[in-house]
Amino acid sequence: MTVDENGNQRATHERLLKAEAGLLRLIRDETLFTYLTFVDITVPTTNNRLEGGVNAQLRGMLRDHRGLSLERRLKAVYWWCYEHSPRPLPVAEILKCMPTDKTIAATYRRIMRNNRPDNILPQWGDAIVWNEFHMSTEFPIYWD
Description:
Elements: E1 2-3, E2 9-10, H1 14-28, H2 49-64, H3 70-83, H4 91-97, H5 101-114, H6 117-120, H7 130-133
Antiparallel strand pairs: 1-2
């Protein structure tokens, strides 16, 4: 037990004791190790099928084709997803909805126009001045 600044006694490692009580309650309610009761269920070794299945293959494809422009890389991702979809559309249909280099470039121009860094950076009179919030005194302030 530890005595706090008010003279009250409390547990030394209070948070650790709360965690232990929570774990004991979960074990008592039989909700902590429920996977042990269903032994005959096959569970995949990884719980994230996107990272090992789809995203890793997309990253590998983009790594193999590093010299492509940004527009071509996006189109390569579209085509990869099209080729690996369970029910792909006919090629004529996919070409109608597939973005072109022009539409991708126009989208990027619109995004860059709206999110231009000079819209974010403060202009004269917009920024916080250090001296407005910190007064200089003869006493040193080491925490600032």
